[in-house]
Amino acid sequence: MSTALITGASAGIGASYARRLAARGYDLVLVARSTDKLETLAGDLRSSFSVEVEVLTADLTDPAQLGAVADRLRSGAAIDLLINNAGDSLPGTFATAKPDGLQWLIQLNVTAPTLLASAAVAGMIERGNGGIVNIGSVVGLVPEYFNGIYSATKSYILTFSQGLAAEVGPKGIYVQAVLPAATRTAIWDRSGVDVATLQNVMEVDDLVDAALVGFDRREGVTIPPLADAALWNAFEAARHALPASFANAVPAERYRINV
């Protein structure tokens, strides 16, 4: 029996992952700020799927509470799969955001998933298997489409996942970055956007089901709304072609003043 720890598990994408993984026979550790919602979900999962469900209430923007979740990953019963789902956005623009708001978002979207992955990966390497799923966003690829630093935090999730996969993949650890587009979650309310004004909004269960298809195929990056996989393949091919051009001891000709 495998055990998965899911952050942001009380609703939305995290709760959908909990239901889908419980149906696959995973025991679960559910992490979120709302104890009541977690306990309700845990009770439903226990009765519906006969799995073990542990509830861990934590605000991942609080260093001490984040540390408690990291300790659970390091020293509790083995966690085979980490779903780094917790995340949020800020209303307004970079120019209107307050410094404490920016710091809060970086703590939640960047620091927390990084430290939780760090806590999980040592045990996974020791056991020779495990998985880490990081929920990013397509705006990490097109940052011009979203105000503020949300896109930047999700760009980090993508590159972090790719770099981590290159490091720990050969040691038996699978790392997947999932990049949703507009999905019907509560993040829109908190970001000040009326989701009813948006087009082509994906339902949460559809997103998670597609992400799990990518998981089963061991994709490094899964983009559920992307119909033409050739676009991503071309993007990746171009990215992988770049390093050969970086190995120059002098500036490129177009940057030489006297040319």
Helix/strand-derived category reads alpha/beta
The share of residues in helices is 40-55%
Total DSSP E strands: 7
So, CATH architecture? Answer: 3-Layer(aba) Sandwich
At the third CATH level, what is the topology name?
Rossmann fold
Elements, N to C (H/E): EHEHEHEHEHEHHEHH
Oligomer: single chain
List the helices and strands and how they pair.
Blueprint lengths: L2 E5 L4 H12 L3 E6 L2 H15 L3 E5 L5 H13 L5 E4 L14 H29 L2 E6 L14 H19 L4 E6 L8 H5 L12 H13 L4 E2 L6 H13 L1 H4 L13
Parallel strand pairs: 1-2, 1-4, 2-3, 4-5, 5-6, 6-7
Provide a quick synopsis of the model:
With about 260 residues, the chain is α/β, with parallel strands linked by helices.
Keywords:
single chain; 259 residues; alpha/beta; Rossmann fold; seven-stranded parallel beta sheet; globular
